[in-house]
UniProtKB/TrEMBL annotation:
Protein name: ParA family protein
Domain AAA, residue spans: 3-177
InterPro entries xrefs: AAA_dom, DNA_Partitioning_ATPase, P-loop_NTPase
SUPFAM superfamilies membership: P-loop containing nucleoside triphosphate hydrolases
One Pfam family hit: AAA_31
């Protein structure tokens, strides 16, 4: 059975794309069949795995220019399939806005290919626009990366208590939170630990949070500019090891 998981947070720079790429690559290392979908017009996930300026993108599939099968790019060196995005995707929100069932376009596009994969991971833009809503509606579960910083944590709480509950109630009753990842943890500062404690206390359910915390890490920051997951770029780094641990937690949670 395929697990469709969306990575979402309306705040940018929280490690959303980094987490999608590296959890995906780590799952692929564990012999899981993984499809990554770049659903952000910035295209950062695409460039992180070496896909630039493609005409066969998620937008071209939504627009009916290519079939969903034609926009899947195999990347054998990472054992990943990827559907890339370019800035063209920014037009999709406007083009879909007046369409009937506009929140379900991505779901309907993915339904025919879902069973080919163990995991389909969707990287959404840092906003709560129609693209992100499509990503959440298409998914079984959501992973929320949260930077260990006060304002990022506040944004997460808004997403958790307002947006997700509304989408679950109105559009996707099966949606559940697979987990929350704390990212960019700096053990040298007391603030990072205080943010974690504050968020866990306000949410009131420690089981929502992954045990693995992602630290600030030089190799993690460098890997995207080399168009590689950190598990490939610096396999022995602490960043790579944390994401492998996180992927194992993801596997355990989807089996429950």
């Amino acid at each position: 059975m395929s697990n469709v998981i969306v990575f979402a947070n309306q705040k940018g720079g929280v490690g959303k794309t980094t987490s999608a790429v590296n959890i995906g690559a780590s799952l692929a290392e564990k012999d899981q069949k993984v499809l990554l979908i770049d659903f952000d017009p910035q295209g950062n996930l695409s460039s992180s795995v070496g896909l630039f300026n493609n005409e066969k993108t998620i937008y071209s599939a939504l627009a009916g220019q290519f079939s969903i099968n034609e926009v899947i790019h195999a990347i054998p060196e990472f054992k990943l399939d990827v559907i890339p995005a370019t800035i063209d995707l920014s037009a999709a929100s406007l083009e879909l806005a007046d369409q009937e069932k506009r929140e379900y376009f991505l779901k309907e596009l993915l339904d025919p290919i879902k069973e080919r994969y163990d995991f389909i991971l969707i990287d959404c833009p840092p906003s709560l626009d129609l693209l992100t809503i499509n990503g959440i509606v298409a998914s079984d579960a959501i992973i929320i990366p949260v930077q260990c910083e006060f304002f990022a944590a506040q944004g997460f709480l808004t997403l958790l208590f307002n947006t997700i509950s509304r989408i679950k109630q109105r559009l996707n009753p099966k949606l559940h939170i697979l987990g929350v990842i704390f990212t960019m943890y700096d053990s040298r500062t007391r603030l990072a630990q205080e943010v974690i404690e504050m968020v866990v206390e306000k949410v009131g359910d420690p089981s929502l949070f992954f045990k693995t915390v992602i630290p600030r890490n030089v190799k993690l920051a460098e890997a995207p500019s080399h168009s590689q997951p950190v598990t490939q770029y610096a396999s022995a780094s602490s960043g790579a090891e944390r994401y492998r641990n996180l992927a194992q937690e993801v596997l355990e949670r989807v089996k429950k």
